[in-house]
Write a structure and sequence with these properties.
The complex is a heterodimer. Chain A is mainly α. Chain A is built from 15 helices and 2 strands. A two-stranded antiparallel sheet of chain A has the order 1-2. In chain A, α3 packs antiparallel against α15 and α4 (63-88) runs parallel beside α9 (204-222). Chain A: It is found in: Cell membrane.
Chain lengths: 356, 330
């Protein structure tokens, strides 16, 4: 990969390249700049999908329906933030779907078993989630196995732990109800509140999601850590050679995914009161799909957090739009596959064109 | 890295501090010393037998907790050593049956949700002289495989019972929410409802993802003119209630199956009624039937399935059910 196309064009050109007439630092036309954006394909797709559903269903554009679409997108998008950063950094995490459930279960079971304030459990869950990310990262670094394998192993282990520990501690396969315990209402008002905006109730996860996307974008575009992430995703060995702390960056990225899993886990816990220990399996692929549709390359080093957000929004639209349009849900997965294929083909074409 | 671990230590320290301050919740949480184990009672005085309970439960489905509770209670009573295993995949569930046959157990209780995949293994067990009882699913197929009897609910009859009850309430156009596409039992329930109320709408949701269940139901409520909505499992009905209450819809909620929260919701009149198939009875009766077979060669049912439902639980009889639902046996 060439670092000039991968780094966002807002970033400074490599220092010391000298020659002012170098074509690498020549000003690009607005059109070419737009074409070079990783999220362009997804944005066009999102707009097309929006117009399409607006035509086939009159309810779809109502504020209440849009609030619902955004909610749907946010539960996916929160994880997609971490997953997109990780994918830009060149790695995968297949344990994300069950890790979110683990986080909610830890909070719920811990505070229930010790009959503490729910927030003690919430803090424990954060520690455990970050730890899971840390362990993923550490094993990956130490063994040099592909992250695909490492996190797949973690996926199975977490899925098993979720079931076994929930049953061992709570005596049932779902976590005991904790909605009457101290601190639950506060948690609900943060992670699963309904906030009125222009007369419609919007779930607080939507704002949390937006906030996380902004922070991730800022980190990627404006900080040194952001440059490190692009560098380790592009070519870890080359990055190491120029002094990028590859190990710390990769482990940090896995921990960022852990943080996202915690946020989603808290929403599941406070939004629904009890956690079903067998849930979450399969969701990891939906996060990856959203991020890929949003223009991140599976090979790493290329993409944005906003792209992942647009991918999640496309997902939310198609998931809900099919119901609003009154279609047979049998087709949902087919559309999903088709969308993934089209999005990746567009991304590839756009990328090739902007490089030529 | 240094920054991260400092942060983690800070979080851990906060948690520890909160613990030492003993931030005990004033309400809820685990109760210390929650009394003796339920059931128990005197043993049957018969020699110990080994029984395998092999279901198609997906890991983490609360329904099977109740089946298991019934089976375990009977096992304690009748001096049965009960081994529970499950696998939602038909072929792998059949392997579990084969394993039990190889172990030479004294009886097998099995669900026949994927009857075709199971028939070979079940027939092998029957040929080996092991008494087999089917529960929950397999009402049509059990007799052909040589299974002694079947304890379960006929899903179509249950669906019809629900439809008839809605009709009595003057409701004509329900939404039937299926949480697992392609699940025959669930499809049959909705088909039963449709049999009585032809205007029934079917809505598929992704049961493994609660936020998705909630927002799909919300979308449907925003577009549909239905007057009732039916959840096909207790945890899903609880999510449906949330969606209904948040959209401010005055639609009536009904359900299949039961758990503690759903029982409470019926008591609070947030759900009109539920159709219970009494899963406890399926687990309990099946283990009991194996024991009775060894005791005196008994075969209940007379070649016909023994129905454990539908039993309707509504505002009228919820008082009798609530405490048992909390105990985890209803």
């Amino acid at each position: 990969m060439s670092s000039t196309t991968a780094t966002p064009d807002t970033a400074a050109p490599p220092a010391g390249s000298g020659a002012g007439a170098d074509e690498r630092v020549a000003k690009r036309s607005l059109f070419r700049t737009l074409l070079g954006r990783p999220e362009l394909g997804a944005l066009v797709g999102a707009a097309a999908l929006f117009v399409f559903f607006a035509i086939v269903s009159d309810v779809f554009i109502s504020p209440a329906a849009q609030a619902n679409v955004l909610y749907s997108a946010s539960t996916l998008g929160i994880m997609a933030v971490g997953v997109s950063l990780l994918m830009i950094g060149g790695e995968f995490d297949l344990s994300t779907g069950v890790a979110a459930i683990s986080s909610g279960l830890v909070a719920s079971l811990f505070s229930w078993y010790f009959a503490t304030n729910v927030w003690v459990g919430v803090a424990m869950a954060l520690v455990v989630s970050l730890l899971i990310g840390f362990i993923n990262g550490l094993i990956f670094i130490k063994t040099k196995l592909p992250s695909f394998i490492v996190t797949l192993a973690m996926f199975f282990m977490l899925a098993g732990l979720n079931l076994a520990l929930t049953r061992l501690i709570g005596g049932s396969v779902s976590s005991p109800p904790i909605s009457t315990m101290d601190g639950f209402e506060l948690g609900r008002s943060i992670f699963a509140a309904r906030i009125p905006v222009f007369g419609v109730d919007v779930n607080s996860t939507v704002f949390i999601w937006f906030g996380m996307v902004l922070v991730a974008t800022w980190v990627l575009m404006r900080t040194r850590v952001g440059n490190w992430i692009y560098a380790v995703g592009g070519d870890a060995e080359a990055a190491r050679a120029v002094g990028v702390p590859v190990t710390a960056t990769k482990i940090g990225l896995f921990m960022a995914v852990g943080f996202c899993a915690w946020v989603l886990g808290m929403h599941l816990l406070f939004g629904f009161g009890t956690m079903q220990s067998g849930e979450g399996i399969g969701n990891e692929f939906f996060y990856i799909i959203a991020v890929v549709v949003g223009g991140c390359l599976l090979t790493g080093g290329y993409g944005t957090a906003i792209g992942g957000a647009i991918g999640a929004f496309i997902f939310g639209m198609s998931q809900r739009g099919i119901v609003y349009a009154g279609w047979d849900a049998d087709w949902f997965r087919f559309f999903l596959g088709l969308m993934l294929l089209v999005a990746t083909v567009i991304n590839l074409t756009v990328k090739k064109r902007s490089e030529s | 890295m240094a920054k991260k671990s400092t942060m983690m230590m800070a979080v851990a320290a906060t948690a520890a501090a909160a613990l030492t301050l003993s931030a005990c919740s004033s309400e809820g949480g685990r109760q210390e010393a929650a009394g003796g184990e339920g059931g128990g009672g005197e043993g049957a005085g018969t020699p110990e037998i080994n029984v395998s309970l092999i279901t198609h439960a997906a890991p983490g489905d609360t329904f099977w907790d109740i089946v298991r509770a019934g089976a375990e209670e009977n096992a304690t009573k009748n001096n049965v050593n009960l081994q529970y295993t499950s696998d939602p995949d038909g072929a792998r569930q059949a392997q579990l049956v084969n394993q039990a046959v190889d172990q030479g157990v004294d009886g097998i209780v099995v669900t026949l949700a994927k009857a075709d995949a199971m028939s070979g293994a079940v027939e092998r067990a029957v040929d080996a002289g092991i008494p087999v009882i089917s529960i929950n699913a397999g009402e049509e197929e059990f007799a052909d495989m040589g299974v002694i009897t079947h304890f379960g609910q006929n899903e179509s009859i249950a669906g019809e019972a629900l439809g008839e009850r809605l009709q009595e309430e003057g409701l004509e156009k329900p939404i039937c929410v299926i949480q697992e596409q392609g699940h025959v039992g669930l499809e049959n329930r909705c088909a039963g409802v449709t049999e009585v109320l032809p205007e029934t709408e079917i809505l598929y949701v992704q049961g493994t993802d609660m936020p998705s269940v909630k927002s799909t139901v919300t979308s449907s409520l925003q577009t549909s003119d239905a007057d009732a909505i039916v959840g096909l499992g207790a945890p899903f009905t609880m999510t449906i209630i949330e969606a209904v209450e948040e959209t401010g819809s005055d639609i009536t909620v009904a359900s299949f199956d039961l758990n503690a929260e759903l029982a409470q919701a019926i008591a609070d009149e947030r759900v009109l009624f539920t159709v219970d198939q009494q899963p406890y009875l399926q687990g309990y009766s099946a283990v009991d039937a194996i024991w009775a077979y060894h005791r005196g060669g008994f075969t209940p049912g007379g070649g016909q399935p023994v129905l454990t439902g539908p039993a309707i639980v509504d505002g009228e009889n919820i008082e009798n059910v609530l405490a048992y639902a909390e105990e985890g046996i209803r």
